[in-house]
Automatic annotation (TrEMBL):
Keywords, alphabetical: Membrane, Transmembrane, Transmembrane helix
UniProt cross-references to Pfam families, sorted A to Z: MlaE (PF02405), STAS (PF01740)
PROSITE patterns, per database record: STAS
Any one GO CC term of the record: ATP-binding cassette (ABC) transporter complex
Family indicated by similarity: Belongs to the MlaE permease family.
Protein name: MlaE family lipid ABC transporter permease subunit
Sections of the chain in a coiled coil: none
Ranges where the STAS domain occurs: 20-109
Organism encoding this protein: Desulfobacca acetoxidans
Gene Ontology terms for molecular function: phospholipid transporter activity
Membrane spanning stretches: 185-208, 214-240, 261-285, 291-313, 325-346, 366-389
InterPro entries cross-referenced by the UniProt entry: ABC_MlaE_roteobac (IPR003453), Permease_MalE (IPR030802), STAS_dom (IPR002645), STAS_dom_sf (IPR036513)
Length: 390
């Protein structure tokens, strides 16, 4: 077989060939593969597909590969030949290389066939079973709880120190955080509360109208907004806007080693970063709760006046009748607790960030989820305790 004949066997029309493959059947079951040109990574996919067609030619007992006219061979080409040899061995076919040039033999000698088939020292990870996943989940929750308790201890200590030495508190940062967490969230909170009050009034009126008791729509809206929906809606909004921002801010500082720089300069990161945010949230959330409560009652008033034939005086007087100082005070206390929890969780998640930008994103999401979970748990605890102490 001449090289020119192989060159005509494989190539692009009008272009110089890169590699050539010619298969000759010397006798039944015995194949001769003549390779020529460049067996490189650039052509590895096409070359491998063409060599795989050898096993579609029916019964094969012996494969002889002639490498006399191979001009260039890299590790990818050598791996293709080694893979073809392994396939022949699995099929019980005799595989041989013939007329191997010295430069090609040097590349082939670098390949270790046993190393390719030898199992790795570190086994491939396997998907954990159900019991392993449950155990890991319990361990993660326990570890998270321990970290949270440690953070709570450090935060309480930092707040106590701030109470003893108020001049050390970064009050400028407190005011800035109050603006970001409070004033900037007023428009969206007002709109949400207004629409929520309208929805509660409208849906309750559909049922109470059948009993001729539409006057109690005002009582229902007032009680719902003061005791439950006002604090919860405000806490959820602050958790989504400010809690996530706290986690992202501190997490980014942790990734950029700015928290470590504070330690080197002699600052306490807890007092420097977390205390201003917690104090700002403790002040802002109750104020926003009062605002959200009034907005929700105003939405109910709008539905009562426009759709239920109630006068504004009647609606407001009915709301005042069901309002009690105990309900208002406990609502504000609940709002303070929500504010401290949301800010604390955001800061705690920020301090535990590891890795890069992905870690910041994961902890930011975790801060929001954990805050919402604790808000519901704390609200349920308040409901049970207030039920028995009234």
């Amino acid at each position: 077989m001449e090289p020119d004949a192989m060159a005509r066997d494989k190539g692009k029309a009008g272009e110089a060939w890169e590699y050539a493959v010619q298969v000759t059947e010397e006798r039944p079951g015995s194949l001769l593969l003549a390779l020529k040109g460049r067996l490189s990574l650039e052509h590895s996919q096409a070359l491998n597909q063409e060599l795989q067609q050898v096993w579609t030619r029916g019964r094969v007992d012996q494969v002889l590969v002639n490498l006399k006219w191979v001009e260039y061979l890299d590790s990818a080409g050598a791996l293709i030949l080694l893979n073809l040899s392994n396939q022949a061995r699995e099929r019980g076919v005799v595989f041989k290389l013939a007329e191997v040039p010295p430069r090609v033999q040097e590349i082939l000698d670098l390949m270790d066939p046993e190393a390719l088939t030898r199992p790795t020292l570190r086994p491939a990870p396997q998907a954990p079973g159900l019991w392993a996943q449950m155990t890991q989940g319990v361990m993660n929750v326990a570890r998270d709880l321990v970290e949270l308790l440690i953070f709570v201890g450090d935060l309480v200590f930092a707040l106590g120190r701030a109470a003893l030495h108020p001049r050390r508190v970064r009050w400028e940062e407190v005011l800035v955080t109050m603006k970001r967490a409070g004033l900037d969230g007023v428009p969206i909170l007002g709109l949400m509360s207004l629409l929520l009050g309208m929805v509660i009034a409208f849906m309750s009126a559909l049922q109470l109208k059948q009993l001729g008791a539409t006057i109690y729509v005002a009582s229902l809206v007032g009680i719902a907004m003061v005791k439950e929906l006002g604090p919860i809606l405000t806490a959820i909004l602050v958790a989504g806007r400010s809690g996530s921002a706290f986690a992202a801010e501190i997490g980014t500082m942790k990734v950029n080693e700015e928290v470590d720089a504070l330690l080197v300069m002699g600052f306490d990161p807890m007092g420097f970063l977390a205390v201003p945010k917690v104090l700002a949230a403790a002040v802002v959330v109750p104020v926003l709760t009062v605002y959200a409560t009034f907005a929700g009652i105003l939405g109910g008033l709008f539905i009562g006046v426009t759709l239920l034939d109630l006068t504004a005086y009647t609606f407001v007087n009915e709301v005042r009748g069901v309002m009690k100082l105990f309900d208002i005070s406990t609502s504000l206390i609940k709002a303070v607790v929500f504010g401290v929890v949301v800010a604390g969780i955001g800061c705690q998640r920020g301090f535990t960030v590891t890795g890069g930008a992905e870690g910041v994103g994961l902890k930011t999401t975790s801060a929001v989820v954990a805050s919402l979970f604790l808000i519901i748990i704390i609200d349920a605890a308040f409901a049970i305790v207030l039920h028995y102490i009234r």
